[in-house]
Amino acid sequence: MKKVLRLFPMMTMLLLFVLSVFSGQAAAQVPSKLVIISIDSLDPGYLYLNAKGNAGGRPGNWLMPNVRAFIDGGVWFQHTRDYLPSATDMNHLNALAGTSSRQTGVLMVTNQLFDWNADGTPNNVFSSLNWTRDDQGRPVDTLFKAWKRASPESTIMFVSGKEWIEHEFNTADSGIDLFLSGANHPDYISAPEKRSFYNPPGMFPAVPSLWQTIFCEYLYGSSPEKFPSDYWIVDSSLKMMNRERPDFVFMLLAETDDLQHGLGSARNPKDFNLITNIDKNNSFVYQQPILNGMKDVDTQFGKLIAGIRSMPEYRDAVIVLYSDHGHLTHNYTAASNVVFSTNVDNILRDKGVISDEEKSYVNYQALTATSFGQIWFNRATLAERRAVAAQAKTVLENHRVFNPQTGRMECPWYVLDINDMKNGVPGVSAPGELYNPYFADNNEPGTLHWPDITLFMKNGWQLPATAGLANNFGASLPSWLPPLNYFLGGHGSVDTMPIVMAFQGPDVKAGKVMADSTYAKNYRIADIAVTLANMFGLELRSTTVGIDRSTDLK
């Protein structure tokens, strides 16, 4: 008996040790630090260029050495694509929820038709998690909500260089504790100031074209609170992280997208004349201003990574880098209205599909800009909507524009009706990618209306900005302006689907490249959320389409 009593303290200590081990294992499953960084509109083509923006980049001579150092220091999924439309609102949500538009209902940037007013005018809504629903009608779940459920006491921080993306995620049940944007920041952070895209401090000066100057100086430059520079976002984010020590940080660097809309894209050096450095298909696009902007984006990214890793709490953080879409240069931007017409309102009116009153957006609406757009018809029944959409599709598919470069007439777009969106179109969209059954098969008031026609541009053609909005960058334009082709660069269609996706972390292998480029096995932006949910033991409670890639990180 005495021997047993002598052993009791030892057994108790052993039991306590075992319990501490198991509790330690349980504690280890509580999410550690996670940082997700998006460089909005970073086309992977830039990652192969040398410091002069030409082909043949290599270690020691990259255009974007800091981004290359990051992807080369982790696992790079080399051939990753987003989902159509290859634009902002839907693909940031796809990255953070593991979805495509089929699982969210988000199909347009900033603005989407919710319903028709009593007078037949459109009632548009901004992208928001408040109204998103998956294909079963459930509210769309995100990594933020899942993280907060798993760790209620943790702190989540959301940083956005685009104010409307903050609004998309800033809902009552978002799970996010701290927000930072150009228009919404703590008192200890100064307001953003104007900073040149094409001549940032310390960069060899570039001379932009007149249109590049006008667009950047008088549109973006006049609203630094709406379009804060990456310099301000990085500096402010590091200050806030040092002070708040959040457990989960999402950060959207938007300058890459802003500068390419205003300057054009330099992802493909073959697009430029070797002597003049002017784009062969758009004489307003000068190469050097774009390269200056991209180099500054890379500099700020390098400063951000160094700042994060310098904080002890984040030295072993998992860091994910992704872009939401690519970017291209549009053809003949400023003069294109003289050369050809892609104004769907005029085309459908001239062919008798819509009336003059409908062209004024009564019982009809087209939301178009840059490389994609959507069309809605207000009719008494769903069958009537489908019938007029069939007429519109025939007219638009038969429309031709003259291409001065080739000397030929050509159709400038892919035209998808509801059946195409549901069944997919080879070479354009996968089955169901553009079709949310919860929203699509209804004609009821008070419910988000799915478009009757979706357009994706071919070969650099541009759609005019309609409905008083430049939808792809969220700036309101005067309502009296006619639909014009404003942008030097843009995105949204099939040719801007390639994106960047890379992971770093303590259990992530350094220098690994996942290079599978087959269509069937291509990596997709939705894989980010599903992979992170698996890594951190989180549960996403709405439908996902992404694939868990965590085993590829080893």
Explain what you see.
This protein has 16 helices and 23 strands. The strands form seven sheets. An eight-stranded mixed beta sheet has the order 7-6-8-1-9-21-2-22, sandwiched between helices. A four-stranded antiparallel beta sheet has the order 11-12-16-15. The chain starts with a helix and ends in a 19-residue tail after the last helix. It has 554 residues and is an alpha/beta fold. The N terminus is likely disordered. Helix 5 links the parallel strand 6 and strand 7.
Write the layout of secondary structure elements.
Blueprint: H1 2-28, E1 34-39, H2 65-72, E2 75-77, E3 80-81, H3 88-97, E4 112-116, E5 122-125, H4 143-150, E6 156-160, H5 163-169, E7 178-181, H6 210-220, H7 230-244, E8 248-253, H8 255-263, H9 287-310, E9 318-322, E10 328-329, H10 336-339, H11 344-350, H12 356-359, E11 364-369, E12 372-377, H13 382-398, E13 401-403, E14 408-410, E15 413-416, H14 418-423, H15 437-440, E16 453-457, E17 469-470, E18 475-476, E19 489-490, E20 498-499, E21 501-504, E22 512-514, E23 523-524, H16 527-535
Parallel strand pairs: 1-8, 1-9, 2-22, 3-23, 6-7, 6-8
Antiparallel strand pairs: 2-21, 3-20, 4-5, 9-21, 10-19, 11-12, 12-16, 13-14, 15-16, 17-18
Helix pairs in contact: 2-9, 3-16, 6-8, 7-9, 8-9
- Report Rg: 25 Å
Q: Which CATH architecture of the largest domain would you pick?
A: 3-Layer(aba) Sandwich
Q: What's the level 1 CATH class of the largest domain?
A: Alpha Beta
The count of helical stretches stands at 16
